[in-house]
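lol forgot to send this yesterday, sorry. struct tokens for the thing we talked abt
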């Protein structure tokens, strides 16, 4: 097979032709033979390097070969392979990759994520299939309700393993691992970054498994030649205006604006919608209804929108090859998310740009991001300079409009100094307020002279 020297199932030939795939990427050339050789792996490679196909192709090849030998899965709710993904969006993307392969191999694929209907749950529990793509919490729930059986599991892949820990799935993973048969299961941890806690988890939970550590590396996938970073110093109040100016003067092609909070995403989306009504935008964050999240994601992936305003829910799982830029409305709270936000652009060897809106309080975060970049040498991204803003890095002029006070006639009144009020014993007290009632109260406390009675005129009968 021209795609790779090692033999894969002949049924994949038509998949390669349909997708226009002629040669494997650097990481695929390293990973595919290891999985075919029944080795458990830890894959460390940047986003956009082809990691999903690196494990999907050999797994599908092995399962189809097994089926050709007369071994067909008939057990209900008991897959041969399970892919664990941290978010619904990433799980959906992986599911689509496997479905594309299954059109030619005729393997059965199911997905199980948050927000799924009861009908879908029943399909997973009562049907037989080879491959399951799911999120940790749904796997844990299905196991507890006996809707999922892992007795004949042969392949387990943890995709975006570092994010699984970032999002607090450790307890779910501990529960799921109890159901694995370590003697018959082949494991894979796929990630773009490998924090210490992930390595420690693997060592503690899989002491009997020997892992082959595979790193992408290679000049062909080094993003430093493709990702340009620009840092713009702003105050929090200026951010919306600067984003609007960026969209009007600098933005070319499609991109994602990342915010740290859901309410920030909502407010920015509303602001841009009002100021730039012709701009085609979509919104994505965790509080949206499942149908709206899926609709907005699909519309952006299909190119029906130029801009996606999103939280870190979009930092992974969205693979769009024509994305040109990313704007970090705020630097993320963890350095790993900065790396993954940057990874949305410059995919497949293309160029990309990252614009950081750097506020005065971001200096501590800058240090953490720079440390993470230094430790991930295969990514080799630019560090964020601590001076935050350099003239040669500015792509557009930032103008701050200062609102003038309302106009008035005559001379401006002089501000009178407010004297501290004290009672008869010399203790400081607050005035009861203006008006007759306040004046009377002040008089009683010994704070002022007796209030002057105003003549309201003669009462007319």
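and heres what i got for the seq, position by position
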């Amino acid at each position: 097979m021209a795609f790779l020297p090692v033999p894969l199932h002949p049924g994949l030939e038509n998949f390669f032709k349909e997708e226009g795939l002629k040669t494997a990427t650097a990481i695929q050339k390293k990973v595919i033979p290891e999985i075919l050789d029944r080795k458990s792996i830890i894959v460390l490679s940047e986003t956009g390097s082809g990691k999903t196909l690196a494990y999907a192709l050999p797994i599908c090849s092995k399962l189809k070969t097994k089926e050709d030998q007369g071994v067909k899965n008939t057990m209900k709710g008991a897959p041969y392979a399970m892919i664990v993904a941290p978010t619904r969006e990433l799980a959906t993307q992986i599911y689509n990759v496997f479905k594309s392969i299954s059109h030619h191999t005729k393997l059965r694929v199911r997905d199980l994520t948050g927000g799924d209907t009861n009908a879908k749950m029943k399909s997973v529990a009562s049907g037989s299939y080879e491959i399951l793509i799911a999120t940790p919490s749904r796997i844990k729930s299905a196991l507890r309700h006996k809707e999922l059986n892992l007795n004949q599991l042969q392949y387990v892949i943890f995709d975006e393993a570092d994010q699984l820990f970032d999002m607090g799935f450790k307890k779910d993973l501990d529960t799921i691992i109890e159901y694995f048969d370590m003697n018959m299961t082949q494991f894979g941890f796929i990630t773009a970054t490998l924090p210490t806690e992930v390595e420690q988890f693997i060592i503690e939970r899989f002491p009997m498994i020997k892992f082959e550590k595979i790193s992408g590396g290679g000049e062909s996938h080094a993003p430093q030649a493709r990702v340009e970073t620009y840092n713009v110093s702003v105050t929090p109040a200026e951010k919306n205006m600067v984003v609007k100016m960026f969209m009007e003067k600098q933005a070319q092609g499609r991109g994602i604006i990342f915010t740290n909070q859901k309410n920030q995403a909502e407010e920015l989306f509303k602001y841009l919608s009002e100021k730039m009504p012709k701009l085609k935008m979509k919104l994505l964050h965790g509080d949206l209804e499942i149908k709206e999240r899926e609709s907005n994601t699909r519309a952006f992936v299909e190119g029906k929108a130029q801009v996606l305003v999103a939280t870190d829910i979009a930092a992974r799982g969205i693979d769009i090859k024509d994305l040109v830029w990313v704007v970090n409305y705020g630097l993320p709270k963890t350095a790993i998310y900065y790396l993954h936000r940057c990874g949305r652009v410059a995919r497949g060897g293309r160029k990309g740009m990252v614009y950081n809106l750097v506020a005065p309080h971001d200096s501590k975060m800058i240090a953490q991001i720079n440390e993470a970049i230094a430790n991930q040498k295969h990514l080799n991204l630019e560090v964020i300079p601590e001076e935050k803003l350099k003239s040669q890095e500015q792509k557009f002029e930032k103008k701050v409009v200062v609102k003038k006070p309302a106009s008035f006639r005559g001379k401006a009144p002089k501000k009178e100094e407010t004297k501290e009020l004290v009672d008869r014993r010399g203790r400081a007290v607050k005035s009861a307020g203006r008006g007759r009632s306040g004046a009377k109260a002040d008089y009683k406390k010994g704070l002022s002279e007796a209030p002057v009675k105003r003549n309201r005129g003669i009462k007319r009968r």
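The radius of gyration is 30 Å. anyway ping me if u want another try
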